[in-house]
Amino acid sequence: MSRRSGILEFAVLGLLREAPMHGYELRKRLNTSLGVFRAFSYGTLYPCLKTLVANGWLIEESGGAQQDAHAAPLAGRRAKIVYRLTAEGKEHFEELLSQTGPDAYEDEHFAARFAFFGQTSRDVRMRVLEGRRSRLEERLEKMRASLARTRERLDDYTLELQRHGMESVEREVRWLNELIESERAGRDLRGSATGETASQDTTSGASGGLPRQGDDPRPDTPDDTAT
After folding, report:
1. What is the domain count for the chain?
2. Which candidate in 21, 44, 126, 222 could, as Cys together with 40 as Cys, close a disulfide (CB 3.0–4.6 Å)?
3. Which percentage of the chain shows pLDDT scores above 70?
4. pLDDT by residue (tens digit) across 160-215?
């Protein structure tokens, strides 16, 4: 499994942990919620869904699980395929959510992990945040050393670009410092100081900053059937 496909599987499982969805809804949520997925297509999503079904982590359901129960089916149109997380899929997602290894700190994977911090325990959030900060501090040190060695050989525009890159990393380190301080103080981004993890509240629909199900009206689209 490639790193990018692993991130996509993680995000799909996390979204379906909130509620069953069909492919169009999943793609819409991934496009609008996580920048790393803005350019991906159905051609990427459906193989991922088929893999998750084959692994027993999702099941496919035909029919109107997400539709108005009083709405008559449109003649000649096939029912949408709705994807639902299985008990094994939920267990697998929670296992992925608990991991704090180096992959959790990488740029793309960190964004996906952070989006689901609302479902992550506080101690895991702390380890991921601290790991990310450590990774960026190492990157910043290397950037400064490189700039010091090459400054005299760089033209003004290249020099300015490198400074811009350093400033971006410095801003993220400051942001991480603030988040870590809040976690240590027992606060989360929703202002709660109870110390309880969001993953214990399975009825809240919290998704670490992701739009909740139904935030946006769903436009009419062609039927979303499995390929």
Report:
1. 2
2. 44
3. 68
4. 999 999 999 999 999 999 999 999 988 766 554 433 433 333 333 333 334 333 34
Q: For residues 198 and 206, is the Cβ–Cβ distance under 8 A?
A: yes
Q: Are residues 47 and 82 in the same domain?
A: yes
Q: How far is 65 from 63, CA to CA, in rounded Å? A: 6
Position 223 scores a pLDDT of 45
Specify whether 91 is located in the same domain as 130. Answer: no
Based on the fold, state whether residues 79 and 15 are members of the same structural domain. Answer: yes
Residue pair 173/133 in contact (Cβ under 8 Å)? The answer is: yes
Domain containing 174 equals: 121-191
Residues 21 and 50 in one domain: yes
Stated length of the chain: 227
Reading across the β-sheet that carries 21-22, which strands appear in turn?
21-22, 81-85, 58-62
pTM over the 0.90 mark = no
